[in-house]
Amino acid sequence: MQAQTDFTSLISLLNSCKGKQFVLCDEHTFVHCYPKFSSLIGQQISPIVIKTGEAHKNLATCEIIWHNLLNDGADKNTLLINLGGGVVTDIGGFAAATYKRGINYVNVPTSLLAMVDAATGGKTGVNFSHFKNMIGVIYAAQMVVIYVPFLETLSQQHLKNGFAEMLKHSLIASEEQLQEYLSLGDISEAYHEKAILKSLEIKENTVKQDPTEKGLRKVLNFGHTVGHAIEYAAQLNEYDILHGEAVAIGMIVALKLSVNKMNFDAEKAAEIIRFIEKNYQTPTWLNSCQADILKAILQDKKNSEQEIKMVLLAQIGKPVYDVSCSIEEIAAILLKI
User: Fold this and answer.
1) For residue 290, what are the domain limits?
2) Which of 46, 188, 306, 313 has the highest CB neighbour number within 10 Å of its CB?
3) CA pair distance 77, 248, nearest whole angstrom
4) Three-state secondary-structure class, residue 4
5) What letters, b where the CB count within 10 A reaches 16 and e where it falls short, cover 51-71?
6) What is the pTM of this model?
7) 124-148 residue pLDDT tens
């Protein structure tokens, strides 16, 4: 499924839809994006509004969505449109996948992170017991619509949050794209439609070859084993960190492990790490939460046979998945960040 860059196909879908239609927003996108979205499609669709933020990506919020759908008579022909960032697209997709055993949904991502990552690929889910995306299913959206002007509603911090996934895509698939990023005077120069669509193409091509993550799709988890664990520790200890900020640290760890275990070029790794450190600040609380981070790594859903399985790089564009890493190796690197 290729993402759309205008609303023509969505308008046609809405006109042909036999059931009720709803738009899922959070408090932020309801104010800043829902009016523009309504204008672009030429009609107002009943909104369901949930609280903003990762802390609300849970089953309790799903219940709110399900109650709204049920009380308003949503049936199997209902269409749910998820208008928001990664939290909205993840939880909205999961709510759609599980309501009456599955209704159709469309993702209209409004954050850079969602545009290049969360909104496509069919992964849906919620956090559980502070663990990231622990409950979920793979259930693809009927359509994804990318409208880049929605990025104007974001702060620089949230744009950087999304760029971390763009950087990850270049590391696992495109030396050319990586060099473009490394040569930027300011990474804000990468927040344009061409670069966004190139990054999204890398993910879509990977997912197309392995939609249920039996093999190749695992490479999209580069930096995420440690990144998700840092998000777990932050939420557990009531610290703030965005997904991309955590993944940036996770990529530093993965790059250093790649040098140690995969003979990845040490100078190239150092260059990329300097670029990451220039653009993403390591939180002051990281070392004090190391025990919680390591606990979460041991619980990572990608682990198998009681071993930590990570994605590392043999070269730029040549990721290797299911590499066994010890908790001691990871801890030694984390202590020095």
Assistant:
1) 156-184+211-334
2) 313
3) 40
4) strand
5) ebebebbbeebbebbbebbee
6) 0.93
7) 999 999 888 999 999 999 999 999 9
